[in-house]
Amino acid sequence: MPHHRGCLRLLAAFCLTFLFLTFTASYKPVIVVHGLFDSPSDFQLLLNFINETHPGTNVSVVDLFDRTESLKSLWMQVEGFRQAIYPIMQNAVDGVHLYCYSQGGLICRALLSTMPDHNVDTFISLSSPQMGQYGDTKYLKWLFPHYMKSNLYRLCYTQLGQDISICNYWNDPHHRDLYLNNSNFLAVLNDERFHPNASAWKRNLLRIRKLILIGGPDDGVIMPWESSMFAFYDVNETVKDMTSQPVYLLDTFGLKTLDARGDIVFCKMANVSHTNWHSNRTVYDTCIDKWLT
User: Where is the signal peptide (predicted)?
Assistant: First the structure.
C-alpha cells in the first residue's frame, strides 16, 4: 500500500508539472519597444507584472536605440528593430504581442505596415503620438531651446530636421502643406503623402487581431494627449476625434477597417503622467493584462 501511495503522489506531481508547463507555454511572447530616451532598464516593473500574472511568458525588451540614440530618424530605427524582432516572430508559431511605448508606438506601427509576414496578434500602443505631436513640453524645450511649438516647423520640415526622430512626427496644424510635403515618416505612414506601397502597407497592418490604444488627460508630454487615440488638432487647435480624421474617413491605412471589425480598444486612464505608464500597476491590470493571452 505505501508503494501505491508513493506512485500516486509521483503521478500527481507529474500531472501538475505537465499542466503547469502546458499552461505557461500557452502564452504568446511579448516584444517591448521603448520610447524616446528610454532603455530596457526602465521596464523592470512591467516585466515583474507580466511574470506575476503570466508566468513563463517570454518577454523581449529590445535593446536598441537607447537614450540619446532614440533621436535618430525613425525609418532607421524601424529597420534596426525589424532585424531584432523578426527572429522572435519566426520562433513563435502562435504569434506574438507587440507592446510599444510612446515614440515606440509609431515605430511599431511602421513595422507592422512594412512587414508582410508579421505574426502580431495584439498591438498595444501605450501613450503614443499616433497622430503626431504638437506642443511645448520639457523634452521639446531641452532639445530645441531656441524654438517653440509655433516655429519648430522651420526646423522640422527641412531635410536636416527629418533626421531627428521627434521631427518625423511633428504635426503642425497651422502648416499643413509643409507637413504633407516634407514629413517623410508620419505623413507617409498615414498615406497622407503619396507612396506606391500604400495598399500593401494597409494589408500588412490589418493582419493584427487587436489594436489597444492607451492614454490619458494627465499625460503631460503627448500633445494633444488624444493623439494616443488617433485624435488630433484642427487648424483652430480644437481636438477632433478619430472618426473625424481624414485618414479615418478615407481609411488610408486601415484604421476605419479595424474599427468596423470591432478590433480597436480604447483605454483612457486619468492621473497617469507620461513616464509612469509602463510602471503603473492599475494601467497594467486595467488595460494590458487581459490581452497577453
Answer: 1-26
Q: Are strands 96-101 and 210-215 parallel, antiparallel or unpaired?
A: unpaired
Q: Would residue 278 show up in a list of annotated catalytic residues for this protein?
A: no
Its pTM stands at 0.91
* Cβ neighbourhood burial of 202 (10 Å; 0-12, 13-18, 19+): middle
Residue 6's pLDDT band (cuts 50, 70, 90): low
Respond yes or no: is residue 219 known to be catalytic.
yes
Percent of the chain with pLDDT over 90: 87
Residues whose CB falls within 8 Å of the CB of residue 93, separated by 6 or more in sequence, listed in order = none
Based on its alpha-carbon atoms, the radius of gyration of the chain, rounded to whole angstroms, reads 21
Catalytic member of 54, 97, 274, 278:
274
Give the tens place of pLDDT for each residue, 215-238: 999 999 999 999 999 999 999 999
The catalytically annotated residue of 54, 219, 227, 228 is: 219
Domains annotated on the chain, with CATH:
30-135+198-291 (3.40.50.1820)
Indicate if 102 belongs to the active site.
Answer: yes
| Average pLDDT across the chain, whole number | 93
Indicate which residue of 38, 42, 97, 102 is catalytic.
102
